[in-house]
Amino acid sequence: MTFFSQGVDKIRAGDYEGALQDFDLFLQLNPDDANAYGHRCVARYKLGDKSGAIADCQQAAMLYLNQGKMTKHQYALNMLKRLQA
Predict the structure, then answer these.
(1) Taking CA atoms, which of 27, 34, 35, 85 is between 20 and 30 Å from 11?
(2) Domains of the chain
(3) How far apart are CA 46 and CA 72, in angstroms?
(4) pLDDT of 1 above 80
(5) DSSP states of 28-57 as a string?
(6) C-alpha span between 55 and 71 (Å, rounded)
(7) Under 8 Å CB-to-CB from 35, ≥6 apart: which residues?
(8) Which residues contact residue 40 at a Cβ distance below 8 angstroms, ignoring those fewer than 6 apart?
(9) Distance in angstroms (rounded) separating the CA atoms of residues 36 and 28
């Protein structure tokens, strides 16, 4: 099991602090993984770190765009609008 899948499982279990730690470790090894930034955004938001969540969402959107994943890019932009409201 990777840090990414552990982080996803921890989000589902409501362990946002643990998820954040797992995504931090995963991103150290995989700095261009847009999905990990998106999931870490959720963990940060649930922990009350709105500015951190926004930063992660922006990073995810940029990476999705650079990778040509336009549907996911649009989803990240929509999430970003909700975070900034």
Answers:
(1) 85
(2) 3-84 (1.25.40.10)
(3) 21
(4) no
(5) HH-TT-HHHHHHHHHHHHHTT-HHHHHHHH
(6) 19
(7) 4, 60
(8) 7, 19, 20, 23, 24, 27, 56
(9) 11
